[in-house]
Recover the amino acids of this structure.
């Protein structure tokens, strides 16, 4: 391991890599969105430009991922990372369930709001040097949430809670809301892919 400063210790990183699941293992143990994870994986496609970019890398990059399959962002973009890994060989994914055993890692990589969010992707080169972090989703997708939220309430005028915070919604309404957002994400795979590859390009230089 390199002596370059990273948030995580070399020993903890080695253990995390050893304990990390492959995407296939993560899908196999999924309890909430197994089918959608696989469907999204099959739905992502890399074009020639994408492949050429990853082919330009001299070495594969290790990506430590904190995730849970109940998370909509995990379901929407982890399959893209897996598709890149499978088709280019330039990503090595090490996927960990954040709770309860890896909260110590989560504390090292907080969202700008100071809290832990998933998915959290931490990139390391072949020397164990930390290259960068990506959390949750591309900004291009976040920008679509208000539009999708308004559409959900327009389509479901009988539901209560339109002007409430999501956390305050009735559980059944919240579930329906998140299900709708996932359906919209499935129709914007190219936007998701372009946003994430742009982020990867800003991290891996």
């Amino acid at each position: 391991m390199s002596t370059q400063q990273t948030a995580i210790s070399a020993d903890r990183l080695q253990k995390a890599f050893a304990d990390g699941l492959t995407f296939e293992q993560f899908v196999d143990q999924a309890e909430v969105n197994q089918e959608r994870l696989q469907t999204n994986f099959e739905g992502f496609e890399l074009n020639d430009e994408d492949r050429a970019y990853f082919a330009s890398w001299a070495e594969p990059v290790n990506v430590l991922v904190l995730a849970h399959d109940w998370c909509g962002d995990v379901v929407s973009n982890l399959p893209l990372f897996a598709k890149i890994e499978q088709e280019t060989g330039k990503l090595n994914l090490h996927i960990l369930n954040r709770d309860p055993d890896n909260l110590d890692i989560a504390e090292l990589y907080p969202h700008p709001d100071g809290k832990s969010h998933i998915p959290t992707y931490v990139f390391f080169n072949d020397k164990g040097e930390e290259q960068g972090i990506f959390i949750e989703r591309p900004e291009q997708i976040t920008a679509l949430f208000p539009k999708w939220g308004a559409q959900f309430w327009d389509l479901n005028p009988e539901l209560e809670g339109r002007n409430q915070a999501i956390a305050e919604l009735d559980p059944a309404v919240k579930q329906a809301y998140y299900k709708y957002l996932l359906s919209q994400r499935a129709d914007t795979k190219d936007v998701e892919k372009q946003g994430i590859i742009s982020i990867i390009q800003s991290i891996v230089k």
